[in-house]
Design brief:
The complex is a heterodimer of chains A (about 290) and B (about 270). Chain A has helices at about 5-35, 55-60, 65-95, 100-110, 115-125, 135-140, 150, 155-180, 185-190, 195-225, 230-235, 245-255, 260-290; strands spanning about 40, 50. Chain A has about 290 residues and is mainly alpha-helical. In chain A, strands 1-2 form a two-stranded antiparallel ribbon. In chain B, α5 (about 105-115) runs antiparallel to α7, α8 (about 165-175) packs antiparallel against α9 and α9 (about 180-210) crosses α13 (about 260-265). The two termini of chain B are about 35 Å apart. The chains are: A mainly alpha (about 290), B mainly alpha (about 270). At the A-B interface, α1, α3, α4, α5 and α6 of A face α1, α4, α5, α6 and α7 of B.
Chain lengths: ~290, ~270
């Protein structure tokens, strides 16, 4: 039972985190909102000041805008799909009795430790390069024409790289959840004659639902702002084929120095993130209360 | 008979798991192998056996002083983690042991701050850092990394602390333990594993953070993420050198991760496993 004394103390203990995050959320956001209504270019001393919604209009009328939003959602959706389904399958596989399970786990978790720029560089040059990559070597071995992945399938290539980085995370959380499943329940289901698919569908999957929700939530947070992988590999191209919203904002701000437009894009990105967050949080909140 | 079948299925599971695991690990393995090749070997087509030359490593070290970047990475990762724990442990503690109606909302709100895309606020942050003289400073970056990882740290600690049974506290109180006695002698020993794995995850996240660490540094505070970006485009054609730089950038955290894997995985569940 929380007494009055511990209640007050609890609030004091909570305060630093809340205050810090409030400042961290509000201060930059207010600045960004302010700049989104200004004409501002750090290289150009002439400032027109307040320009109303024109930055938003310009950003919105940019042909890349809609595509970048679609690309953002495609990256989030596709990577979630690959990592959750792949993670479940991998977890089921690794959970089987086998020799060297410890080493298998170490090998599978490794991509999670690789920083995004290195992951992107390695995939770009060592694996997917049309001349010297391993995929090209394999293609030539079978007498096929090597594929220029980043030119022909830019978004798909980025999805593959990002999925590779996040598959370990999904697998490990799902594996831990799988291993916490009561062995007796499994045996009972087996005795009752439930086959593997039925056991999976009615016992394992419901048991893992909580873990799946957590995987989706955490990954969504990181996937909404994929950036280094795009910068290193396709630079958003060809055209805008692999530009997501954060990357478009980056282009406006740091390559074109259009701070006003970039800020307008930033505000839109924040709104999009909040819409996604709202649905993700609601789903998770419901699932975690169970 | 039954034993034979189980051995057989064990063989199948072993072969299948090792195959998949090696495919997943392959990009890392091949990078390490290529880093030990000469440049001509590196582009001579697929080959798993290098000539074990260290020339690429020497070149990388000549071009950029690896140890300076390494030291910055260590300082930033460890420093920001300690800062985050200082702020997060009390918060998670209070939410776990004195929950209110709004605890869940606060937790979800904290996580939602992480959904703000970094690029959206890069310019204001840059201006603020510039004004405060924090650009390219380790302290500024430490605070930054602490802030972006704080929600995850709070959540992870919260899910951990919540597993500690409240009855133990009551029992200690009955025995006349003071509040601080409770915290130091009863709760802390139970919370240490959770704090340890939270620390590990946060060190990994901070080590691999590749937006702010690149954008807010130039030379003095630049960590390994900046080190690797300096090798990215113009040197793209030197495969062995690029591989050596990549290996150097990920090796410390990879080795740490391998050794602490069990610890880390236990904490990675975020309350997903009951």
């Amino acid at each position: 039972m929380a007494t009055k004394q511990t209640g007050t103390l609890a609030r004091f203990m909570l305060a630093p985190s809340v205050v810090l995050l409030l400042i961290w959320m509000i201060v930059p956001l207010v600045f960004t909102l302010w700049f989104s209504f200004q004409q501002y270019n750090p290289l150009n001393p002439i400032r027109d000041g307040f320009v109303g919604f024109s930055n938003y209009a310009l950003f919105y009328s940019n042909p890349a805008f809609i595509q970048s939003i679609l690309n953002t959602l495609t990256i989030v959706g596709a990577v979630l799909l690959i990592t959750v389904i792949g993670g479940i399958l991998l977890a089921l596989l690794i959970d089987q009795p086998m020799w060297g399970q410890g080493i298998v786990r170490i090998l599978v978790i490794s991509p999670f430790f690789v920083m995004p720029p290195v992951a992107a560089l390695v995939w770009k040059n060592m694996i997917m390069h049309p001349g010297y990559g391993v995929f090209a070597d394999i293609a030539r071995f079978f007498g096929a024409q090597p594929v220029d992945w980043f030119a022909q399938y830019p978004l798909f290539s980025i999805i593959i790289i990002v999925a590779w980085q996040w598959l370990p995370f999904a697998t490990l959380i799902l594996l831990t959840s799988l291993q916490s499943l009561d062995g007796e329940q499994k045996e009972a289901a087996e005795m009752d004659g439930a086959n593997f698919l039925n056991r999976f569908r009615y016992l394992t999957l419901p048991h893992m639902s909580r873990a799946i929700t957590v995987v989706i939530l955490i990954q969504t947070i990181f996937l909404l702002s994929v950036y280094a992988e795009i910068l290193v590999t396709t630079n958003g191209g060809p055209g805008y084929a692999s530009t997501n919203l954060p990357f478009l904002v980056y282009q406006k701000a740091l390559l074109e120095y259009k701070i006003g437009q970039a800020s307008a894009g930033g505000v839109i990105a924040v709104i999009l993130a909040n819409i996604v967050a709202f649905f993700a949080m609601r789903a998770v909140g419901k699932n975690l209360d169970k | 008979m039954a034993r034979a079948v189980s051995t057989q299925s064990k063989v199948v599971a072993t072969v299948a798991s090792w195959t998949v695991a090696l495919i997943i690990f392959f990009p890392i393995l091949y990078t390490i192998i290529t880093s030990l090749k000469s440049e001509t070997e590196a582009i001579a087509g697929f080959d798993l056996i290098p000539s074990f030359t260290a020339e690429s490593y020497v070149q990388v070290q000549d071009q950029a002083n690896y140890f300076k970047f390494f030291l910055n990475s260590v300082l930033l990762a460890v420093g920001s983690t300690i800062l985050a724990l200082f702020v997060a442990v009390p918060a998670a503690w209070s939410m776990a042991f004195s929950p209110t109606k709004r605890t869940k909302d606060i937790l979800m709100w904290m996580l939602s701050t992480k959904m703000m895309p970094a690029v959206a606020v890069l310019f204001p942050i840059y201006l603020i850092f510039n004004r405060l003289g924090l650009l390219d400073s380790r302290i500024g970056l430490m605070v930054m990394l602490m802030l972006i990882n704080l929600p995850i740290v709070v959540w992870m600690l919260y899910t951990y602390f919540r597993e500690i049974p409240g009855e133990i506290l009551e029992a200690a109180r009955m025995d006349g333990a003071t509040l601080w006695g409770e915290i130091f002698y009863v709760l802390t020993p139970m919370a240490v594993p959770g704090i340890a794995s939270t620390m590990l995850l946060n060190i990994i996240l901070a080590w691999n953070e590749a937006f702010w660490t690149i954008r807010l540094t130039t030379t003095d505070a630049a960590p390994l993420t900046a080190f690797i970006s300096s090798f990215s485009s113009p040197q793209g054609l030197f495969w062995a050198k690029l591989s050596a730089a990549s290996t150097l950038a990920i090796a410390p955290i990879l080795i740490m991760g391998w050794f602490s894997q069990k610890q880390l995985v236990r904490g990675l569940t975020f309350g997903a496993v009951k």
